[in-house]
Amino acid sequence: MQVDLADRLHFLARVQNCSRRKLLVWAACAGILYPLRPLTAFAQGGIGYPQTVQVLREGFLSETAAHNRYLEYMTRALAEDYGNIAYLFSSFARSEAIHARNYSRVLQILGVDCTLVQGEFDIGDTRSNLKQAAARELEKIESVYPAYISRLEEEQFAQALLHCRYAWDAHRQHKDKLTQIMNYSGFFMGAVIRKLEDIDFDFFVCQVCGSTLDGQPQGDCPICGSSVDNYNNIERPQPTYASIKYNHSEKE
Ligand SMILES: [Fe+2]
Ligand SMILES: [Fe+2]
């Protein structure tokens, strides 16, 4: 049985209890917007970008965990009276938070919620935390992020690729700084990180991409190209009630 458009509209008008005129306007709008459907479809749960959504979710969890882990490292370093190393960790924590935020924003554009998961971390003394941090940053640079990017390239969602590349570059900066510290230390890490306390670290983090620089930025961000005004000078963390928990727990 063939039903023409007028019959359909009449039927819909009766069902929805609205005028034929309103329905004609609605149908015209639908006709105009239909060609844009592929552009709007992603706003409904990431339809059309399954790999991108998966990578962004993994990235969000990984960066959130990195943020929390660096805060734990910072607390431990403060408890051990390594103020400079604590400052380094808190600056990296800020950078990781920006990566997590960027991924969550792209997920929002895709119409996907992301859930924060609290994890437990294996925290050692500051010496072993530095080594662990360097190993994790190296793993991200050499294997995790190249894999993310090759998966994202399959679907070419521009904002996801952009923020993933920003984070990859920022992790290189983290790794370079950690390597610099490790090179100081050789086999005598304990003595060397004590000496590091005489150096004046002064960290700046780009609020757009998480770029982390030691020293006043000399121009626009080398990673995302945004204005130097987007760099925040990170404050040095102060010993807090939380930072003495390790001292207490070790004495018990
Ligand atoms: Fe990160
Ligand atoms: Fe930046």
TrEMBL record:
InterPro entries xrefs: Ferritin-like (IPR012347), Ferritin-like_SF (IPR009078), Rbr2/Nigerythrin (IPR052753), Rr_diiron-bd_dom (IPR003251)
Domain Rubrerythrin diiron-binding, chain residue ranges per copy: 55-181
Molecular function GO terms recorded: metal ion binding; oxidoreductase activity
Name of the protein this chain belongs to: Rubrerythrin family protein
Biological source species: Candidatus Desulfatifera sulfidica
